[in-house]
């Protein structure tokens, strides 16, 4: 008899506004080349119009599909003992950092995130490679999570190495 | 000086300065350089039309000005720099126009390294670097005292690394241990020098020697006529090739390769002697491991055992063939080895035979058996398939490219491309396959007592033994390709060494069980088990 062992997904999803945030962020990357190609196409080389159309169509497809996918994959969880996250699709990654080893808890809000009232919580440990990031929480939830984490970690003695 | 609330603490340590001889030392160095530079300068000025006394006057004036400036500058620096040790902190300040202070909490001091260059040694001086194990910007986390008297450096080391009773109350061994010198954990065996030429540095060193010689030859070339000889020789060789006599060229090439190899080997051995002369590894009574070594520049590197999280056994290509390896410490606070002088600071044992490696490892880790020597469990076949794919793909792509080129071109070009294709297929494919096989065979993991052991690497093999209590998190990573074949890469994150150590391409279930068993209760709550019929 065999036993299948696997990591269970963390319980919480990110805030649904992440979908919009990711889409805007992606659009900001794709839009400039489309606009440039389109303008040049109208003014100089008509062939560039086709390029603009191709980028726009592919971009739009990605814009609609990928964020929905990401939303299903990105999850997080804070238990009494650890912070646990799952990210990525092509390179899926599960990260665990125990409460007793957490050194700092940061919240950060980029300009786009502010627009959507989102925030990123970054939990660092003494390891250069051990940081756990939860990107895309509701801003208020993020600060309460950060506060809670800070309280828990301060209650734990030791220099966390 | 104003009275401060911490006056009681201050009484413990008064400020002291760097060693006064630094002014003399630095001035001598500057004078030497300036005097050497003065000769061509004087000759030049004389050639410009000045009389000899006139030229001498100008040069002497210049020399005097520079030397005086050095004396003044060094004196001011000496005046400005002060340091002291109090019960809680080590303080350093530099007060000259601006004031810079640095204060290290004594319980955080993790390293006190002493280095003495030949010049320092003439004057009986040494450089002391005091470091904390912090991740902060490296400049803030360490203080460099350059120079202090050798005896003072030694006293500082003992003083700063002695654990204060407050910092480690549960440690009773400290009080009852008399300051007796234990036998060293390892001392230099001169046979190890034989491994030095096997390093990848050897060809580079050889080439450097050849380059240097070529420069010297070209300096004296017109006198000795060596360059002309060489040129004639080369012409002759080319002529021989034209005639069809490749023997001369082959001979010349073989001679050159042999010469580079010989010069490189000699260079590597000399470098080894400079670095490892008088090597000994001690366990000091104050709970530190100490490496002492060096012929011209002597080094003393202390590492607090409390921050040792394991060791890494590195078997570099040539050295691995000789069944030897080097041992590095995996310790916290050694992460940013940015400056070149620190790169070899973590080496506890230079390349030595495996028996020695295992003995020293078990002594350093205080384990009956070296965790780096335990038998490891291998990884699934799928890991071999991945490695074969990675190593064969580039070779096959090049071969295919050459094949296409051969079919598209004609004449000698087609012949050349065809040759390249066959070379890739007959030479490249077996080599790539062997490398993949080696990389696969080297994959392995185990739990050995208090240690998690992971091995990997093609050609250059590294085996890390990481204290399970030093693991402060897990990262499990699975690419879409790994998912198809049921593999994962498990990374144990730690405060020590490179920050994370991987177990690559382990079976999914094995990897999770390994992580769960290595550190119970960390990954465990997130692991799901379902019985499968």
Automatic annotation (TrEMBL), chain A:
Spans through the membrane: 20-43, 49-71
Record keyword 4Fe-4S present: no
Keywords: Membrane, Transmembrane, Transmembrane helix
The protein's name: YdbS-like PH domain-containing protein
Record-linked InterPro entries: YdbS-like_PH
Keyword Transmembrane helix: yes
Domain called YdbS-like PH: residue spans: 71-148
Automatic annotation (TrEMBL), chain B:
Keywords: Membrane, Transmembrane, Transmembrane helix
Transmembrane residue ranges: 23-43, 55-76, 200-221, 241-273, 390-408, 420-440
Any Pfam family matching the protein: bPH_2
Sequence ranges assigned to domain YdbS-like PH in this UniProt record: 78-157, 440-516
Entry annotated with the keyword Transmembrane helix: yes
Protein name per the record: Putative membrane protein
Species whose genome carries this gene: Haloechinothrix alba
């Amino acid at each position: 008899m065999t036993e299948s062992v696997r990591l269970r997904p963390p319980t919480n999803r990110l805030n649904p506004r992440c979908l919009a945030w990711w889409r805007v962020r992606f659009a900001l990357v794709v839009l400039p080349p489309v606009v440039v190609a389109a303008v040049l196409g109208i003014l100089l080389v008509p062939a560039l119009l086709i390029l603009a159309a191709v980028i726009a169509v592919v971009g739009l497809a990605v814009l609609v599909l990928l964020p929905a996918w990401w939303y299903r994959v990105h999850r997080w969880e804070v238990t009494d003992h650890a912070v646990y996250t799952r990210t990525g699709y092509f390179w899926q990654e599960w990260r665990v950092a125990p409460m007793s080893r957490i050194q700092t808890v940061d919240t950060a809000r980029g300009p786009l995130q502010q627009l959507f009232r989102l925030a990123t919580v970054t939990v660092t440990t003494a390891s250069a490679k051990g940081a756990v990031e939860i990107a895309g929480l509701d801003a208020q939830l993020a600060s309460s999570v950060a506060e809670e984490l800070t309280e828990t970690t301060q209650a734990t003695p030791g220099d966390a190495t | 000086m104003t009275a401060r609330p911490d006056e009681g603490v201050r009484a413990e340590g008064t400020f002291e300065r760097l060693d006064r001889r630094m002014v003399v030392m630095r001035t001598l160095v500057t004078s030497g350089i300036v005097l050497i530079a003065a000769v061509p300068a004087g000759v030049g000025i004389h050639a410009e039309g000045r009389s000899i006394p006139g030229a001498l006057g100008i040069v002497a004036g210049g020399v005097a000005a520079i030397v005086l400036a050095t004396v003044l500058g060094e004196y001011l620096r000496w005046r400005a720099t002060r340091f002291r040790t109090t019960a809680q902190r080590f303080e350093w300040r530099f007060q000259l126009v601006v004031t810079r202070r640095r204060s290290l909490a004594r319980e955080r001091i993790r390293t006190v390294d002493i280095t003495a260059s030949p010049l320092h040694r003439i004057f009986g001086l040494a450089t002391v670097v005091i470091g904390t194990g912090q991740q902060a910007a490296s400049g803030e986390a360490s203080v460099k005292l350059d120079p202090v008297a050798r005896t003072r450096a030694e006293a500082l080391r003992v003083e700063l690394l002695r654990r204060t009773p407050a910092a480690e109350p549960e440690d009773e061994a400290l009080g009852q241990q008399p300051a007796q010198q234990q036998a060293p954990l390892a001392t230099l065996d001169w046979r190890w020098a034989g491994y030095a030429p096997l390093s990848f540095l050897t060809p580079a060193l050889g080439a450097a020697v050849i380059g240097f010689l070529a420069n010297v030859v070209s300096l004296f070339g017109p006198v000795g006529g060596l360059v002309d000889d060489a040129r004639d020789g080369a012409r002759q060789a080319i002529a021989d090739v034209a005639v069809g006599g490749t023997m001369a060229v082959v001979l010349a090439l073989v001679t050159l390769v042999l010469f580079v190899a010989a010069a490189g080997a000699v260079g590597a051995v000399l470098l080894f002697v400079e670095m490892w002369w008088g090597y000994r590894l001690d366990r000091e009574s104050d709970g530190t491991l100490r490496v002492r070594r060096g012929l011209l520049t002597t080094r003393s590197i202390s590492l607090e055992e409390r921050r040792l999280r394991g060791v890494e056994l590195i078997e570099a290509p040539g050295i691995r063939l000789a069944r030897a390896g080097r041992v590095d410490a995996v310790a916290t606070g050694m992460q940013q080895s940015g400056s070149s002088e620190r790169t070899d600071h973590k080496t506890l044992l230079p390349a030595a035979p495996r028996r020695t490696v295992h003995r020293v490892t078990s002594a350093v880790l205080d384990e009956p058996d070296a965790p780096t020597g335990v038998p490891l469990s291998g990884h699934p076949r799928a890991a071999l398939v991945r490695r074969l794919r990675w190593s064969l793909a580039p070779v096959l792509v090049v071969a295919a490219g050459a094949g296409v080129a051969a079919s598209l071109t004609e004449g000698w070009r087609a012949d050349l491309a065809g040759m390249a294709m066959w070379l890739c297929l007959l030479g490249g494919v077996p080599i790539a396959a062997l490398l993949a096989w080696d990389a696969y065979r080297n994959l392995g993991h185990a739990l050995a007592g208090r240690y998690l052991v992971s091995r990997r690497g093609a050609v250059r093999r590294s085996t890390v033994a990481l204290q399970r209590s030093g693991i402060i998190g897990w990262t499990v990573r699975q690419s879409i390709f790994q998912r198809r074949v049921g593999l994962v890469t498990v990374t144990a994150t730690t405060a020590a060494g490179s920050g994370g150590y991987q177990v690559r391409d382990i079976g999914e279930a094995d990897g999770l069980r390994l992580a769960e068993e290595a550190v119970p209760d960390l990954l465990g709550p997130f692991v799901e088990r379902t019985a499968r019929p």
